[in-house]
Amino acid sequence: MILGIAGVVLREQQRMLSELTSRYAQDRILDVTCAVELAAFDEPEFHDRVARAQAGVMRAPQMVFGLQGLGRSMAGAIGAGVALLTVAPLLVPVALLALIPGWLANHHRGRAFYHFGFVMTPRDRERGYLASLRLGCPGTRPGPGTRKTGAGSTEAPPWRSHPGSGIRVFRSRRS
Fold first, then answer.
1. What does pTM read for this prediction?
2. What dihedral do alpha carbons 97, 103, 75, 9 form, nearest 10°?
């Protein structure tokens, strides 16, 4: 029963912290976008930075859950380390050395994911923009201020160009 109550409290705290983190991050993005010069809005790089920041806001709940999980894992690892230190102190350096390959692999993977996200931002932003305009979708009409392009064309819609190009970019970073 106590574990059930603790689980409910933990989930509620996670939801609240996730919401607060997301709102704080979104407020910072709005502060920056409202403070920049108007000319910055003409630069694709500015929109790419904003898109990356907004993607980060969407990941804020994952960050909260991850940090809480990291705290629990660290507490368990410290407990195991203390137990290992009392039972077999000579094994502590061996256990620490065993962590190095995993840390290096995780570091390499993190860099690969960052590079992939960085490279894909302009493509994803363009794809999202085109999807929001609903161009080329069967049964829809272009929104106000847009024009229909390629009527009757057999070309693939722009957001489907280069199928798998994102996967190729990601795979090239892994090797």
1. 0.54
2. -160
